[in-house]
Amino acid sequence: MKAFITVIGHDTVGVVAKVAGLCTELNINIEDVTQSILQGMFAMIMLVDLSNCNVDHDQLHKRTDALAAEMGMQINVTRQEVFDAMHTI
């Protein structure tokens, strides 16, 4: 299952490393990533594969919420099917 992880907040050292570290810990494969700094704000989108993730959906969101709180940022995980459904007529 594919998903998008988005990260938004004030730019700080180690954001990519911390999010990638959580993905490694949860056995989530990062397939693509883009990031930008926009007037001091950090924005990143990762396309990930959750097929081998070692926690369930609720635990994944708890872990990303905890990391977001620790970093003072916003982290969202959205399954690709949600985007696909939005464009289906």
From TrEMBL:
Residues 4-82 form the ACT domain. Pfam families: ACT_6 (PF13740). InterPro entries: ACT-like_dom_sf, ACT_dom, UPF0237/GcvR_regulator, UPF0237_ACT. Gene3D superfamilies: 3.30.70.260. CDD domains: ACT_1ZPV. It comes from the Bacteria. Belongs to the UPF0237 family. This is UPF0237 protein WMO44_06245. It comes from Faecalibacterium tardum.
